[in-house]
Amino acid sequence: MHEPELHDLSDDADYAASIQQGSASINQNESRRQSTSNEPEGAEIVYTKDNVTIHPTQYASERISGRLKLIKQGNALFMTWIPYKGQTSNARLSEKDKNLYTIRAVPFTDIRSIRRHTPTLGWQYIIVVMSSGLAFPPLYFYNGGVREFLVTIKQHVSLVRSAEDANVFLVNDFQSPLQRTLSSLELPRAVPVANVSSSTADHSPSSGDIERFESDKSSASFHQNSRQRQKNHDPARDLSIQVLEKFSLVTRFARETTSQLFRESHLIDGFNPNEGKKHGQSSASYNHIQSSIDSPKYHDEVSVPSDPVEFDKISLVWGKPRQSPLGQQEWATFLDAEGRVMDSKALIKRIFYGGLEHNLRKEVWTFLLGYHAYDSTYAERDYLMSVKKTEYDTIKKQWQSISPEQAKRFTKFRERKGLIDKDVVRTDRSLSFYDGDDNPNVYLLRDILLTYSFYNFDLGYCQGMSDLLSPILYVMRDESKSFWCFVSLMERLGPNFNRDQSGMHSQLFALSKLVELLDLPLHDYFKQNDCLNYFFCFRWLLIQFKREFEYDKTLLLWEVLWTHYLSEHLHLYVCVAILKRYRSKIMGEQMDFDTLLKFINELSGQIDLDATLREAEALCICAGENGEASIPPGTPPSLPLEDASVYPQLDDDVL
Predict the structure, then answer these.
(1) 3-state SS, residue 199
(2) Which residues lie across from 111 on neighbouring strands?
(3) What is the pLDDT of residue 90?
């Protein structure tokens, strides 16, 4: 039965209060907008808002303000956001950096939903989610205007409120044949992605008109897309890890159907190639490389540009051989009679190059994660564990004491518990430690995650957290100690799960800068093939390569990363090392986004960890200060500043 008013904006108090104001504002500015000098025939600016801002990091000095526009041409509506030029106070944010976030002529046929956030304190902001499941960075409205923005959209496209979440507005929410194809896979830990494109020449404006209208090159094509309403899923939450897994197993037909959409829905536009001399190349050699990329390509004969930093050679020169793991007898030499670590720097270096024997991890991980101080004694550590055990039990009782009647009136608790219950039974069940029905370790995993959601109520629980906790519980075999080690890890990785995805966006941005620094031809290839958003590396970063290596190799990698020996962002250099290792295959086979996404997912279990760590070390040393300068301050997994909020502006009405 069709119930048109159930999801309609007319039941929204914001909508009702702003209808008159919004329409008057639009009418008042209509003549001015229609007289814009660079407007192409038939195009009209129907909404403009200044001081709409993106927060790439948690630092106020690195915020990027710009102008948001809605442009109508024919029957199509487009959204643009262009950053202001020359108005940043931070010298580290160049115009090229700001262009990374530019949104150019995105058609609403490629948009699935818009989430509105109205925190009690702070600015309202929106998150625009694409049909691919990926999302733009949040757009903060410093001077208001969210209501008028939604009102204007509703006047030109289908916009209805989600039945599951009153703050989510669905765009063109129709049935999708491709959705049924994807859903039929019935993959665990995956969400359906609704998108299918079919050409509609009658309603698609020419891209040239939009290019002239914005006085800049637009890379978007315009297609009509079908959608399917998603049940029990927040479009702004956990968007990418499930999408990556889903598309790694989609049939060839589905991949071909979605490939055009992925190419057209790329979110990042705009690194201009640097001078070849930046990487020690002559102008002539750089021009030769560039022309070889720009030339027509054929699958049976493709010239792959050479590696500008001679990858194989630097790993031999600067990447030291891996050592055997640190054992019990050697560990004892680092401790004094009372249990203090006498030389923490030497210990960190030793772990970086060799890792730990498994029976030592339970003790040494507590130091690497910051649960215990290196200068603490045996007695001090025993006392701390006793105190923390009592504190953990107190927090745990908060959710254990919730009665069924109280739970009926506690939506966040029910929803978080439901997510956790579903995730823990699908986490690492191939391990004997978590295998079998009614496994007590699975219940421990659930209890720790529920307790953490009460300990850090602002962040709560997001999919992926169970993947980070599982190895810690596997190693510690103790509920309280596992909880506090997980708390310490989330102090570093918590921004990965921010609702606005700021932590992930800052890492992907830093990764793009490092690839540009260390392999400009590869960077340019990604740019030309609409892969510059680096979303194919999303899963690597979100859960620290956990699904890319065998379990014991993951434990080794994590303890190496936790040392912060060469850099607290060594995981980014690991990404670069893997991409460079397969650069010839990627470029030689001319992989586009969806092909590259599938290829990256299929590398799981195929990557040589020791060689990768050696190569990442060499790249980190090679990049030096230039590499450090490419990474924005506060980029995870750096420890948070005492006076900075790691989980900014999380509103109360959203899980």
Answers:
(1) coil
(2) 130
(3) 54
Residues 384, 373: contact at Cβ < 8 Å? Answer: no
Other C-beta atoms closer than 10 Å to the C-beta of 271 total: 20
Q: How far is CA 52 from CA 18, 68, 136, 139, 554, in A?
A: 19, 6, 13, 6, 41
pLDDT over threshold 70, residue 195: no
- Give the integer Cα–Cα distance in Å for 259 and 546: 27
Distance of CA 128 to the CA centre of its chain: 14
> Distance between alpha carbon 298 and the CA centroid of its chain, in Å?
33
Q: What stretches of 126-238 show up as alpha helix (H) in DSSP?
A: 146-154, 177-183, 207-214
User: What is the pTM (predicted TM-score) of this model?
Assistant: 0.60
Using one digit for the tens of pLDDT, what is the confidence trace for 3-49? 333 333 434 444 343 334 334 343 444 444 443 445 556 789 999 99
Measured distance CA(97)–CA(88) in Å, rounded? 11
Q: Which three-class secondary structure state does DSSP give residue 221?
A: coil
Q: CB under 8 Å to 454, separation ≥6 — which residues?
A: 395, 398, 399
Q: Specify the 3-state DSSP secondary structure of 77.
A: strand
* Distance (Å, whole) CA 428 – CA 430: 5
Residues 129 and 115 sit within 8 Å (Cβ to Cβ): yes
Indicate the Cα dihedral angle 615, 616, 617, 620, nearest 10°: 120
Residue type, 209: D
CA distance 573 to 560: 13
Whether 126 shows a pLDDT value over 70: the answer reads yes
Q: What is the pLDDT of residues 405-426, one digit of tens each?
A: 999 999 899 999 999 999 999 9
